[in-house]
Amino acid sequence: MKILHVGPTLPDADQRAADIVVRGPAIQGDIFQAVEEGATVIGIIDGGFEYTAPVWHKEILYALSAGATVLGAASMGALRAAECHVFGMLGVGKVFQEYVNGSRVDDSDVSQIHGPAELGWLPLSEPLVNVSATLDALVGKQFLSIREAGRLNAIARSIFFKDRTWRSIIELAGFIEAERKPAITIALRACQINQKRADAIELLDAMSRFPDIRALPKLDWQFQRTTLWNEMVKQHSEVKSSGKLS
Fold this sequence. Notes:
By secondary structure, this protein is an alpha/beta fold.
């Protein structure tokens, strides 16, 4: 069984992956649960972090030690893949590469506010990784200079992720002449690059190529069942037995 945790980054994932079980953004306990259910390939794209405990690195190590293939991309998945690739987690896409090579370090660069699943994860802000990719595209089209793109990117970074929109970015761009702002706004929206979505699709394609089996892991490390780990497993078991976990 292949399991993918995704939400606003690729809301149509279930229409693209006939052989993959699609679940919502991963939170703490979800990867452990997937392993217990027998998952062979686990993909992480989106994850909860603000009002729930985020997916734990220890769960990923547990999955790897059990012989499951674990991949991450685009959002929370890219962060965890950059942090756990030395242990065997596989990272996919440009966003992962930027984190793993150190050119991007801030977790909030992938953060985005959005509506609930019932509203199709409606995006309400722009993640910085998409802003940067779009600005690079406009530099390539010679619509913006490298200096202008750099200044706009710096402005975008200074805005709290929940408030980051194209409008808020342009409004703070005092170095751009007022008469030029409408044209730039139109160009930004017309040439918008959704890097997170592109990476998520790449991860989905990668998952489809892996066989639906667990492989005997060849690891140079050993999974340690620490006190905190045992406590998490205990809490998970209690929640499951109460019927609150499907």
